[in-house]
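Sample pair:
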Amino acid sequence: MSKKSKYVIVSPDGFTIHPTETYNNPKQAKAAFNKWQAQYEKQGYYSSNFGRINLKDLADYCQLKEV
């Protein structure tokens, strides 16, 4: 029996964008990422340990990982 893959998005700081959620496919993970990113729209950037990241570049700094 094959194991069904689950996915998470890892932030630029190395932790998942949600502490407990996993996603059934990359499309669900992308939707969760978009919701998470929207939290930073008012300030206009994501602040990481490495400095400010422009929101238009944030996806490039995150990773989709299979768990």
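Residues 26-38 form the longest helix (13 residues).
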